Amino acid sequence: MFVILLASANSVQNGIKIVFAKRASNNVQIEGRYTSIPYDGLPDNRKINLTQEDFDRMNNRFPEKNYISGLIPVNVTMSYKSNSTFGTCTGIYPDYSKINGIKIMDEQGRLIDDMDMAEKRKVALINKRLKDVLYKDENPIGNTLLVNNLKFTVIGVFSENTIVDNEKAYIPFSTAQYLFKGGWGFSSIALNVVNLNTNKENEAFNNRLIKNMAEVNHFSPDDKVAINIINFLKAYLQTLSIFNSVLIFIWVIGVGTLFAGMIGVSNIMLITVRERTKEIGIRKALGAKPSSILNGIILEAVFITSTFGYLGLFLGIWVSGIFNVYLKSHPNSGKFAIFENPSVNIHLAIMAMVSLIIVGVLAGYFPARQAIRIMPVEAMREE
User: Fold this and answer.
1) Rounded to whole angstroms, what are the CA distances from 318 to 7, 133, 160, 314, 325?
2) Among the four 73, 76, 114, 266, which has the fewest Cβ within 10 Å?
3) Measured in whole angstroms, how far is the alpha carbon of residue 358 from the centre of its chain?
């Protein structure tokens, strides 16, 4: 039980890390919302629209910034020949490929570059899901993609670090801004940041972001809802903090289970020695040395606890292994995304087994030592 509990805890921890790895934990995304506080003669409930000045400030005034990209996502109908589907078309900067881990699959094309941005080219990156839906077995590179009946040329098929795998296309930000935003504004801004490792550092970073955006968009720096800051590292640290509390609880249950096993071993050895008191008296009467009697009982305790401790260790690891195989082979394995590689630190498992052996030895030693002190005549009277 102790091994299975530890394996389950490690499985959840591994799952959390993988889920956040699919969306880099050092990414920040900023979106405009509505003001909740009147400020400087302006009313509340004003829509905050992100501008080029917001982008430039984030790009130039924050040393934590590693990569930056504007985003304009639009829900659209995408089609090729007689095939069509609904999906998301998002305008991005070239840096967004580094922010979100966008990679070309099997050398199928290229990424969006600075020339695409400068010339407002109508080119598109598509993900594998969109390729499979629209192009089937046909090579999409160089072919047309209709986005709300606007013609784009497919330049690449990509994969990325994301949890949601829906039909998706990326186009140059400048093109999206011209086609969908009237040549002005941002829907959101994505940042990849460095040197933010604690909740305190993240909170300070968020406060500086709000202060700078408040200056540009004329809202109160105390208005915490005027913009929405999605800080993935903060969410990751908070999730780990919650999990650490759960992990402590699991350890308490695990140690309690181990302690219950130790009590069981102790009781078995106490009963065993108690039942053999008469035998001990006879052996002493026949000339057996107390040390040989004591060593025999201790060896028996070591054999019982080590044999069944090892058996428990083996069964715990075997059950964890079977569960791991099930997770990987199940056709709906995506439903178990929070569980990944249930395993246990072998050193901890061995320490638990050694603890059981030590308890078994002590449980056999003390009653045996008491029994061998009894005079043979008294010991043979014991029922």
Assistant:
1) 11, 41, 35, 6, 11
2) 114
3) 37
pTM over 0.85: no
Which of 169, 167, 190, 187 is CA-nearest to residue 177?
187
Q: Which residue has the tokens 């881990």?
A: 101
Model confidence band, residue 334 (pLDDT cutoffs 50, 70, 90):
low
Strand partners, 159: 103
**What is the residue type of 52?**
Q
Which of 11-25, 42-56, 65-79, 264-278 is predicted least confidently?
Answer: 11-25
Specify the amino acid at residue 231.
N
User: How many angstroms separate the CA atoms of 328 and 9, rounded?
Assistant: 18
Burial group, residue 255, by CB count within 10 angstroms (0-12, 13-18, 19+): middle
Tell me which H or E stretch contains 259: helix 232-275
DSSP states of 56-121:
HHHHHH-TTEEEEEEEEEEEEEEEETTEEEEEEEEEE-TTHHHHTT-EEEEEEE----HHHHHTT-
How many CA atoms lie within 13 Å of 377's alpha carbon, on the beta-carbon side? 0
- Cα(103)–Cα(340) distance, integer angstroms: 24
Cα 345–chain centre separation? 18
* Structural contact between residues 172 and 38, judged by C-beta atoms closer than 8 angstroms: no
Give the residue from 356, 376, 182, 332 showing the smallest Cα distance to 264.
356
Pick from 336, 339, 253: nearest CA to 3: 253
What one-character-per-residue DSSP string does 269-288 give? HHHHHHHTHHHHHHHHHTT-
Rounded CA separation 92/69 (Å): 6
Amino acid at 374: I
